[in-house]
Amino acid sequence: xxxxxxxxxxxxxxxxxxxxxxxxxxxRPAADIGRVEYxxxxxxxxxxxxxxxxxxxxxxxxxxxxxxxxxxxxxxxKHEIEDCPPIVVSVRRKxxxxxxxxxxxxxxxxHPLDPLTAAETVADVLRARRVPVVSG
Length: 136
What we know:
5 strands; single chain; five-stranded parallel β-sheet; alpha/beta; globular
């Protein structure tokens, strides 16, 4: 029986940004993570709906998205969803890392994306997410 692939939501109003994120991370960010599947959204409403459903294992939000950026959206989601999935924010400038930290993002990717760093970052966040809870 094969394990369901983890679901990664990728949000940007620009298709080329979504494509660059997906290409950098790949379909298998690390051997122990297995394959992942991507859900692409260009609108905030779709992001909110999927995040509310609880079917997303990780969200990657474009900090530069218009009209609503991923930084503000991250902060909103972290405050509104009780067991919010981890969120990675992608930014254009290293100097914007502090904004992603303010948003309570679990990690930050800086464009241009380095495939090794992007895949490793996503794998680390997914590993932290799936740590099993041990009942006593």
